[in-house]
Each structure stands twice: as structure tokens, then as C-alpha cells.
Design brief:
By secondary structure, this protein is mainly alpha-helical. The protein contains 13 helices and 2 strands.
């Protein structure tokens, strides 16, 4: 029991040290431009939507499905809410239902298209992403439109953090304490094995897209409430949303050996948001920030793809030291 407790504390310290080291690096090298209390609160707010989108993508990514439409769906759902809010002055509850409902419906359509077309998810969702981006422009509310102030309540503190906490609890309960969560983990470990024990991959794939829609919808609601405006997407520009959230997911995956997936994704997105703010404080141009983000995901992919080899390498080194120690002791 004591060894398990020490191990848990050690893992928690390792997980906490990663964002602390990132914070310390930018705080020192930006000469005070990064790291103030207000800026950290703003970073925490910006992390909310990114984390929710990463959680939305997580079940599909674990099953090797790359849903490239989530960024466009996030934009489309916020545009739908903004459009009707401006045109018809709809009540706040209707605005919420419209934003989240649009995301659920669009994600469900994506799931049905993926199952019906029987082509790789990346191909299907890329085409659907282009269609959804076209639809955002057909609404014709302007490239960048401000949301009426009365609809931005969900971006206020502490409301946004309360909603975020509720969604984290919901994800944790679904992923760890439901049959659906068990099935996702089983399929992630091997689809054929999952089939053999009676799990229906197609049914669960559709449910993953529906669940994704719920989290993308809430992310869209909070994001548009915090920013107070919405912009139309075109030429696959929604990929910025998508890949930033994928970065957070893969950082979380790299931390999986030290904490559960949800905590890892949260920490991963917080680190990526800090990095964006830190690089800006250092005076790097946006193009260089994208290069830095690309290098980070490359390193993360290399590490996560070769974790077994890395662990074996250090295990072999430790074993060699033990053998040398025994030899020297016997000779002595």
C-alpha cells in the first residue's frame, strides 16, 4: 500500500512538473512579459475549449480514426447560434440548444457518412469538412461577426470553469464507468478481439461521433462566449483548431503512464496554450509558432510511438549495471 501511495505521489509530481517547467522557461526568457496572474487566468480560459475538443476527439483517435471535421463543426455550430441570435433575438436557452444541437447533428451526419461510405475516416471527414466550411460561408453573416453581449455569459468567470468542471466529470464517468467507455478501450486494444467478445464496432463508432458532437458543441458555446465573435472558415482553415487540439491529445497520451487520459489531455492542452502565449511573449512570428508546434508534435509522436523501445533500452541499461555490480562484488 505504501509503495503504491509513493508511486502515485511520484507520478503526480512528474505530471505537475511538466507545465511548471514550461511556465518557468517562458517566465525567465520573456523577461517578465509572460506569467502574470491575469495572463495565466486568460490561458486557463483558452484551454477550456481546446481540452473539450481534444476529449471529443479522444475516443476516435484511440481507435485510429482521425476526424478532420471537428474544427468546421465547431465553427458552424457557433455561426448558427450567432446567426439566429442576431436575426431573431432568440432566448438564451434556445441559443444554447441551437449551438450544441447543431454540433451533435453535424457530428452524427459525419458518423453516418463514415459508416455508409466505408472508406477511411480521414478521407471521409476531410471531404465533409470542406462541405461544412462551405456552409459556414453560405450563411453570409460576414467573415467576422460579433455576438450580442447577452449571449456571452458562458464565457464569464466562474461560469466557464463550472461548465468545464461538469464536462470533465461527465467524460470521466462515461469513459471509465460505462459500457460504452469499456467498449471504446476494448476496440482501441484490437477491433477483431472486440468483435470476438461481442462488441459491435459500427454501433460504437456512431456513438463516438455523437459523444464527440456533445463535447464539440459545449466547446463551441464556451469559445464563442469568451471571444465574443465568430469567423467563417474556408480553404481548410478550421485545421488550426483541429491540429492544436490534436497536439493536446498526444501530449496527454505521452503522459498516460503517469496519470489517466483525461488529466493528461487537460495538462497537454494547458501546456500547448502556454506555449502559444509564451512564444508570442518572446516575439516569435505566427509562422515560427507553427514551426515550433510542428516540432513539438513530431517529438511527441516519436516518443509515444517508441515508448516500448525507450523503456526496454533503459531496462537493459539498468540490468547491465546490476550485472556489473554483482560481478565486481563477487570479484571483491
Amino acid at each position: 500500500m505504501q509503495s503504491k501511495g509513493k508511486s502515485a505521489i511520484g507520478n503526480a509530481v512528474k505530471v505537475i512538473c511538466v507545465p511548471l517547467l514550461v511556465y518557468a522557461f517562458f517566465a525567465v526568457f520573456s523577461h517578465g512579459k509572460f506569467g502574470s496572474a491575469n495572463s495565466m487566468v486568460a490561458i486557463a480560459q483558452q484551454t477550456i475549449a481546446a481540452t473539450l475538443v481534444s476529449l471529443a476527439m479522444a475516443p476516435n483517435l484511440l481507435c485510429n480514426r482521425f476526424d478532420l471535421s471537428v474544427g468546421a463543426i465547431m465553427t458552424m455550430s457557433s455561426i448558427m447560434g450567432t446567426y439566429f441570435a442576431i436575426k431573431n433575438s432568440i432566448p438564451l436557452p434556445v441559443f444554447v440548444i441551437l449551438v450544441i444541437g447543431t454540433a451533435i447533428v453535424m457530428n452524427s451526419i459525419t458518423g453516418l457518412a463514415y459508416l455508409g461510405m466505408k472508406v477511411p475516416a480521414m478521407v471521409t471527414t476531410l471531404g465533409i469538412c470542406m462541405i461544412y466550411e462551405m456552409l459556414t460561408n453560405l450563411l453570409n453573416i460576414g467573415w467576422c461577426t460579433a455576438l450580442p453581449e447577452q449571449y456571452t455569459i458562458f464565457g464569464n468567470i466562474p461560469t466557464c470553469f463550472i461548465i468545464f468542471a461538469v464536462m470533465l466529470v461527465v467524460f470521466y464517468l462515461i469513459f471509465t464507468h460505462t459500457e460504452f467507455g469499456y467498449n471504446v478501450r476494448a476496440i482501441a486494444n484490437g477491433q477483431q478481439i472486440a468483435k470476438n467478445i461481442g462488441i459491435k464496432p459500427k454501433k460504437n463508432a456512431f456513438l463516438m461521433f455523437v459523444m464527440s458532437g456533445v463535447f464539440v458543441g459545449v466547446a463551441s458555446l464556451i469559445n464563442v462566449s469568451i471571444s465574443g465573435q465568430v469567423a467563417s472558415e474556408q480553404y481548410f482553415s478550421s485545421a488550426n483548431i483541429l491540429f492544436n487540439c490534436m497536439l493536446g491529445f498526444y501530449v496527454g497520451l505521452a503522459l498516460l503512464r503517469y496519470c489517466n487520459l483525461m488529466v493528461g489531455i487537460l495538462i497537454g492542452n494547458f501546456i500547448m496554450t502556454m506555449m502559444s502565449a509564451g512564444l508570442l511573449a518572446l516575439g516569435l512570428k505566427s509562422s515560427l509558432q507553427n514551426v515550433a508546434a510542428g516540432l513539438v508534435i513530431l517529438v511527441i509522436m516519436i516518443v509515444t510511438s517508441n515508448q516500448g523501445r525507450i523503456s526496454d533500452y533503459f531496462a537493459m541499461k539498468h540490468k547491465a549495471k546490476e550485472i556489473q555490480k554483482r560481478i565486481s562484488t563477487s570479484n571483491g
